[in-house]
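Extended Data, panel c. Modelled sequence:
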Amino acid sequence: MTEETWKIQYKKWKNLKPYQIKLIDDGPKSQSQAWLLNSMWCEWKDLKRLNVSEFSSNDISSVIDPWELQ
C-alpha cells in the first residue's frame, strides 16, 4: 500500500474540513500539523480494520466513532 492510497481512501470515507484536505494534499508545515496528519492516518488505519464493504455509503463517519474501537 502506497502513501497515496491511504490519503485517497480516507478522503472518500470521511467528510473532511477544507483545512484537513489541504493538509493531506500539501503535507505538514509544522509539528502540530504533523500530529494532526498522524491522527488522521491512525483513524484511517482503524477504519480500514472494519469491513467497509458492508457499508453502502462512502461516508462511514456517521456510522461508527473510531475512538470506540480501542
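The radius of gyration is 12 Å. This feature is highlighted in the accompanying rendering.
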